[in-house]
Amino acid sequence: MILSDKTIIRMLEEKTLLIEPVEKAQIQPASVDIRLGNTFSVVEDSPSGIITMQNAIRYKTIQAEKYLLLPGQFVLATTQEYFVMPDNLTAFVEGRSSLGRMGLFIQNAGWVDPGFEGEITLELFNANRCAIELQSGRRVGQLVFAQLDEKALNPYKGKYQGQTGATGSRVFMDKETR
């Protein structure tokens, strides 16, 4: 079941769902707008020109109020908001249609697990032929919340728990593929 604005407001008031900072205007009929933070990370060039899943990837991270995303460029960014999800709630990250129509693709694997806590790292890609100026504080997407039928047996406690800033891939920490 997708949560309505009434339920989201009630959960925020009861502090069963935490979003900091959040303004009333961000709460939409069935979602909460997310805003772009001021941290951006780009993959540093590797000497071999190859990124592997077995080794840590090096990133250059900057803090800025504006970031110029060049055509065909990929950058990690973060939300301005910090989330604490209860064990019986999940969320889908959706980009804004108006930004998609500019050629800005926004993703984060699209999913926020029950029990997750932290800022959400966004993967941004400029599919346009022109540069796109990104500005901290601008609405870039929305979270759509869905209620689980019961609390998760194993809520999220993974390698991105508590993340802040544009957090790079930690795929090299996966145990199942080593």
TrEMBL record:
Catalytic activity: dCTP + 2 H2O = dUMP + NH4(+) + diphosphate
Pfam families linked: DCD (PF22769)
NCBIfam families noted in UniProt: dCTP_deam
Self-association and partners: Homotrimer.
Biological role stated in the UniProt entry: Bifunctional enzyme that catalyzes both the deamination of dCTP to dUTP and the hydrolysis of dUTP to dUMP without releasing the toxic dUTP intermediate.
Gene: dcd
Protein name (database record): dCTP deaminase, dUMP-forming
Principal EC category: hydrolase
Positions bound to dCTP: R96, S97, S98, L99, G100, R101, D113, T121, L122, E123, Q142, Y156, K159, Q163
Site (Important for bifunctional activity): G110, W111
GO molecular function, one term: nucleotide binding
Family classification: Belongs to the dCTP deaminase family.
EC number: 3.5.4.30
Active site: residue positions: E123 (proton donor/acceptor)
Keywords: Hydrolase, Nucleotide metabolism, Nucleotide-binding
An example Gene Ontology biological process: dUMP biosynthetic process
UniProt pathway annotation: Pyrimidine metabolism; dUMP biosynthesis; dUMP from dCTP: step 1/1
